[in-house]
Amino acid sequence: QGANASALEKEIGPEQFPVNEHYFGLVNFGNTCYCNSVLQALYFCRPFREKVLAYKSQPRKKENLLTCLADLFHSIATQKKKVGIIPPKKFITRLWKENELFDNYMQQDAHEFLNYLLNTIADILQEERKQEKQNGRLPNGNIDNENNNSAPDPTWVHEIFRGTLTNENRCLTCETISSKDEDFFISSKDEDFLDLSVDVEQNTSITHCLRGFSNTETLCSEYKYYCEECRSKQEAHKRMKVKKLPMILALHKRFKYMDQLHRYAKLSYRVVFPLELRLFNTSGDATNPDRMYDLVAVVVHCGSGPNRGHYIAIVKSHDFWLLFDDDIVEKIDAQAIEEFYGLTSDISKNSESGYILFYQSRD
Asked: Its GO biological process terms (predicted)?
């Protein structure tokens, strides 16, 4: 471990080593690479890290998944050494205790874990806010104006990860447009939209897939749309538009449910994801019609199916790239990221490819 750590320090160089930055591998507790890779990716999403560390400095709270995450992030951020290894034991133990889905030695899906973690943090924050209101520590604590079924205030997790899509239907008979907003990147309990699921075609790029995301489809024959205006089923154009872009855009798509196989199969074909991404095609009332994003982290899946194989994380830190493979940390070339686009052909199912992409907005 010492040799690996000092090699990394030498490679970065004492002058180049970012001030107050620490690169620590995480010990694998038996198939916990799905968790380690997501934690590393989130640690290098700066807005998220800052909020978690700020949470740590609040008065002591009873232990939950967020306090354990804050302790882990704090422990990395305050290490005397610049590089090394940390066992995230307290966090993993808590995770296993809270959700039996993760409490076994099977390989878990990194995306399910990310979804669970962010939703749990949001729930914890909302519950704390509710308690504070009841204890009269927050303004507007009068209970009567609190409509119980109104949506709870957004938390900082929502502020970082949540975007809004508008689902537009235009009736081709009367031309009436109806639109409905949907949030993505944070859950409403029945639908966990923690990320934009993008349908990826072979040999394509994420930019292209995102464009396709807002293509117009025609609803016809048995899929006709019920138009309120015409009071009957009509042919219609359906289109998704992005209304609000999040601060951090988490894109995920690498396994597809194959009906004929009755299981999730890995999509190992090649999809190019750029180091920077510009998003537009947003609806007319969009708050920020276009935004530039930089790739800050990628959770990479190596192997053939979501519950088999191995996960690693590639992160960007102060203009260089690092690869975190459980307790191993290496500096890599930006060019090396191309190796994780997936295969040009689907010959070998055992490929390494980007599975969750984290893009951070520049503004």
From this structure: protein deubiquitination; proteolysis; regulation of macromolecule metabolic process
